[in-house]
Design goal:
4-stranded mixed β-sheet, 7% strand, binds zinc ion, globular, alpha+beta, 9 helices
Length: 240
């Protein structure tokens, strides 16, 4: 199987990208076609980035089958990890989160490793919350809202937290949705597509590069995510 995957890596990569996109959008419950399309772009960037890195490593250590291993890891994380994290995150229990987190980590080795190290310091300071398979780090005091998800670690303003220090659940569900987009599309695919496609799209569609309007137009990657903590109906691109 490794030999086969090594020989046909470049033919199989776009197929795995397509499967990752379908699995990611279906399991997360993406509601509009432009989000499905952006997911496909993200997944294809993700799978080719992973394969490209593995080709480089494989040449360095004289192990051409590295790219086959990369394909297997990508496919396992997205096709198996995606539905598992969805179920575990829905349980809203720290034990379930404990099992969800590693799947997200596999697809986000840079952001989640860096964020995981930062989490240790934040937890010691009593400013971290663990919910729906993500660590939430309180980066400011006060009541302003707003959060940034990088892998399975979320950097959130003080207004995102309850008085007892726990992150608010509707916000947690929104950001956990993004963490699962990363699980499906890989961090390289998701963040490059978010920056190069999602943000210009959001700007053009509603003047909101990192969000949506109250009418449901904007950045496709935010359209379903924002339904977790805002009352609005996302609109597909052709209705905007
Ligand atoms: Zn969001």
């Amino acid at each position: 199987m490794l030999e086969f995957l090594t020989e046909y890596t470049y033919a199989l990569a776009p197929v795995f990208g397509l499967l990752a996109a379908l699995m990611g959008s279906a399991v997360n419950g993406a509601k509009v076609w432009d989000e499905w399309l952006c997911g496909l772009i993200a997944a294809e960037i993700g799978v080719f980035a992973v394969v490209g890195i593995a080709v480089g490593i494989g040449e360095g250590v004289d192990a051409p089958e590295a790219r086959a291993v990369a394909l297997i890891v990508f496919a396992s994380a997205t096709l198996v990890g995606m539905p598992i994290t969805r179920i575990l995150d829905a349980a809203d229990h720290w034990i379930a989160s404990l099992f969800s987190f590693p799947f997200k980590w596999v697809q986000s080795p840079v952001f989640t490793t860096v964020g995981g190290l930062l989490t240790i310091g934040w937890a010691i300071a009593g400013r971290a919350s663990f919910r729906r398979g993500c660590f939430f780090l309180k980066v400011s005091s006060g009541s302003s809202q707003g959060a940034l998800t990088l892998g399975a670690v979320v950097y959130a303003y003080g207004g995102c937290f309850e008085k007892d220090g726990r992150v608010k659940d509707d916000l947690a569900q929104h950001e956990a949705y993004h963490s699962r987009q990363v699980t499906a599309f890989h961090e390289i695919g998701f963040y490059i597509a978010y920056l190069l496609v999602g943000m210009p799209w959001g700007q053009a569609q509603g003047g909101v590069p990192m969000s949506t309007t109250s009418g449901g137009c904007g950045n496709p990657f935010e359209k379903t995510a924002r339904t977790k903590n805002h009352k609005f109906t996302p609109k597909p691109a052709h209705e905007c």
